[in-house]
Structure formats: structure tokens, C-alpha cells
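Quick entry between incubations.
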Amino acid sequence: MNPTSASVAVSALPGGAIPAQAARTGKVRIIDAVKYYGAAGTGVLAVDHCTFEVPAGEITVVVGPSGCGKTTLLNAIAGFHSLSSGSIYLDDEMLCGPGKLKAEPGPDRIVVFQNGALFPWKTNIENITFGPMMQGRLTRAEAYEKARDMMADAGLRGIENNYPGEISSGVRRRVEIVRALMNDPKILLLDEPYRALDSLTKSVMHEALLEIFYKNRVTIFFITHDLEEAIFLGHRVVIMTTRPCRPKKILDIDIPHPRDYSVLTTKRFREFMDETAAAVHEEATKAFAAGEKER
Amino acid sequence: MSETDLTKLPINTLLDRSDQMSSTAVAMHRLSLWLASPRPYLMMIGFGLFLGFWYLSVEVWKLPRFAEMPGLTTVVSEWLSKNPIYGLSIFVDEYYLHIWVSIRRIAIAFFLATAIGVPLGLFLGWSKRFKQFVFPVFELLRPIPPLAWVPLAIVMFHGSETPVIFLTFLASFYATALNTMLGVQSIDISYVRAASCLGAKRWQIFRHIIVPGALPFIFTGLQISVGVAWFSLVAGEMVSGQYGLGYVINTSYTMVRYPTIIIGMVTLGIVGYVTSAMVRVLGDYMMQWRTRELALGGER
Ligand SMILES: Nc1ncnc2c1ncn2[C@@H]1O[C@H](COP(=O)(O)OP(=O)(O)O)[C@@H](O)[C@H]1O
Ligand SMILES: [Mg+2]
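Done. Structure below.
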């Protein structure tokens, strides 16, 4: 993709003021976060004094071996469970911290789940309109109109009245992201959303996600255990240690956006891969060894 | 690469067809699949073998074990007779009175069991506190078979109607409440979390996630519920009551009207099957998302 088409993609937005404004919100700061599961002494330390920042209007990707505590961290931001100590800020609002260790879940931070969580008993459009209608923010007619527009924009026309069980898993993921974007969230929290997909579908999903990002400039917090995916998508890549998780290495990926799959074959991309592969491999080995010992 | 190339990705072509499939179309589609498969013909062979064995063993071979057993032709001619020897056939009004009385009892008991069991099960699954004080009592009462309640039912309730309905209600109620509770517990926590992310309040989550999410289990419970309702109904009718198919079977036994016993049994089988089928159809209607998923999968 050349720079000209990039500027087209950004400025072709209806209501072009939104991205500029959105770019200033959605910064998340995680400060000295600790999460301990279970009772002291017998429990599991999942997150250990973890501090890093998710810049507004960018894609931050967290990479770490399975079971290291990535989901735990995401759940604390989303407000699904409490931290043991530390604090998390969204822009300048404290989500959780001393005195209030559990954040309230809300439509400013929407999670796209590891296994997908479209409600199977609601049609795609009912899923997409769920947020604004529950919040009472839009009337039914308004919500449906907005949903139809957004679905058409995302190439999802024609499946409005199908159930999620009737569409392929790749399409389901896109419906789920549209459902999140309907609420104009400050940040999207994606927990290994493409884990179950085959590599071909995955590459298509990556480009579709970037396309959505270029249009909306919503801050994205993306979890994965796939380094290539992380470097391809991220402005910033946070490599985690094995459990308990803590940033081991934070990289700013200076490959210019907008990116497409041709990036994978560039020299710069390979350099980033080489620079990080050793660190990731080392943690994966540790995780494997720890897993062996625990059993 | 242009913007449209990226976003207008091809979507499964199956979709276009299923989008236009109404539920009747899905039903017709399934029926034609069924007729094209070997299943209906195997089913007829199964019936043929069963009835053939009955006919041969009683009326042709006259096996000693089946000496008292009414034969197939005896039962069928009695059942279809305008002047039945033992008083009950499809041309006798009393036959339909018995059926009607049984169905009415089932309907009342099933309705009560559902109306009480579903909400109770939903709250048992939804609220830990509620479960902690209700469930132990529930678990203690549940293993008591409905038949053990017969004396107490007769003492507690007046007349012959209420005790029978109460007995019928009991087992249905346990099945419904328990399955509903399991249904709530089976709901993936991600759905609840997703709903709370999207701004749903507690009662909205209950109405939009918990209830529909538990529906597949609720209908499994209701299927079991109609089944056990007939089971305890017949037991109840044999002990108390003046009409009903269980009563027919029991009095025909004491009055040595053996073909009528079989007529009562076969009628129970048919009416019982129809009531379960009705519950299943209602379930398919209320869970079209599942019916459509299964229709796409092709297998049931
Ligand atoms: N609710 C829980 N109770 C106890 N331990 C948990 C719980 N959830 C996760 N864990 C443990 O915490 C660790 C981190 O889990 P998780 O955050 O899901 O890892 P990841 O998402 O990186 O694969 C794992 O060892 C897991 O077993
Ligand atoms: Mg995880």
C-alpha cells in the first residue's frame, strides 16, 4: 500500500473529526500491578509489579507464553476482577487502585474474547445493537440504522438477520469488533482473538483489523502469543516474562503505518523478529520448564 | 490495494440461502432429508418386527408364557370395534373422556411445574446466596420417589383430583428446576462479561443472557418433565381417581378385561409421544438460532 492510498483511507471517513479526537483518548497506564490468585502462600502469583503504558490512538500488543498472566491483566483493565495491588488509569481517570481494587466494566473499554462471545441466541444485528440499546443511548431505530451502516462499512452486509452460528468464525470476529465499535469505546481489548483461525484467515483478519483501526483510530490493546502477529500489528510490542508476568522488553515498532502483508518480507521486520525472537524463546522455554516442574 | 478490496471479503455462500430460509422451510427441508434417508424405512421394519413377533408368539405359536396375553388381532379388532366386548374402543365416548382427563391432569401439573420450576431454577443458578439456603432442602426432597408421596398426597389434598395432580407435578418440577439451574451454570462466563462490557445492568443480563442462555437446558428439562409426568400420573391414577388411562389399565386388570389393558397402554404411548413432540416443537420454535445452526450442520 502506498502513502497516497493511506491518506485516502483516513480522510475518506464520514464525520472526519472523530479520529483526530479519538486519538487523544484511550491511554491506559498500568502502574505496579500485582495479581495474586487464591490465599497467601498457596495461591498463584499471575502478575508481578507490572508497569507499562498503552499510548492513546495506537496499537499495543502484549506477547507472552500461554499461562503467563496476559488475560489476568486484561481482565483487571476490563473490570472482570480485582487487582491485588497497584493501579490502572484510563486517560486521567483511575479505573482501579488503592481503595478500589476492582474496576467497573463499561462501554469505554470493550473486550473481544479469546473464544468469541457473540450471543448465539441473538442475530448479528441484535448483537451489534445490544450495547447502545442496553445503555439506552440510542432508540431501536437509531441503533439499527447505525448498525446497518457500520456493517456495510465493514463488508458485513447481508448477514444482519443470521445468527452467529451460521457464519464462519472469521466473520464472527468481525461482527464482534463491530459490536464493540458501536459503543465508541476509548479502547478495544482483544484477547488472542485470532488464535483459533487458520493462518490464511488470520492474515485476512489482520488486514481487516488494521483497516478498522485506520478508520476509527481507536486505541487497541491486543494480546497474543504469536510474535509475528505482534510485530505486524503493533506500534508498540510488550514482551512479557513467563508467570508471574512483567514486561521483559518494550519495543516501539517504527515500521510506518498503514501496513499490509508485504511488510512481513521487509528487512526491518526481520530485524525486529531477530531482535525479539531470542527473548520470547527464552521465556517460552522457562514456561515449559516451570510447567514440567509443577506437575 | 483499495479500501473496498480489504473490507468486502467474500462471505460463505451458504449464508445467502440460509438467510431466506424460514422456520417452515427448514422444517420441510428436514422432512425431505428424513424421507430420503433410510431412517423412516428402518423404523417401519422395526415396527413390523415388533408387531409380527407379538402376533406370532400369541396367536400362531401360542407360546405358554403368553397364554393370558391378548393377541394382536384381538386387541386391534376390539380397539376399532363399534361394539367393543369389554366396553372401550375408539367409537366409545368414555374412551375420549379417559384420555381427556389424563391430558388435563398432565397439562395442569406440567404447567405448574414449569411455572414454578423454571423461575426457581433460574434463581438457583443465578444467585449463590439463594442456592445456599434453598438447594439443600431441594436435594433432600428430590430422591423421594413420587410414589412415596401417595399417602401424604391423599391425606393432604381433598378429593381424587388434586392428589393425582400433585404427584404428577412433583417429579416434573424437580426435573425442570434442576435442569434450569444446570442451564444457568452452563452459560459461558464470557457472555456475562461481554454483556457487562456493553453496559448491561444486572437485570438486563438476567433477561438477555441468563434466560436465553439457559433455554437449551430448560427444554431438555421440559422433555424429561413431560416424560416423568406421565410416569407419575399413571402411578397416581392407579391408586386414586375415577378416570384416566392409568385408571383404565388398573380397573381392566381387576375386572379381567385384558385387551383393554393393552388399549390403555398403546393409547398412553401415543398420547405421551405427542405431548413430548409438542414440547420439542415449542423448543425448536423458541430456539431458532439452534434449529438453524443444526439445519446448516445437516445432522440432528
Ligand atoms: N481464576 C483463577 N484462579 C486461580 N488461578 C488462575 C485463575 N485464572 C488464571 N489463573 C492462573 O493464572 C495464570 C495466568 O493465567 P492467564 O492470565 O489466563 O494466562 P494467559 O492469558 O497469559 O495465558 C495461569 O497459571 C492460570 O492457571
Ligand atoms: Mg489468555
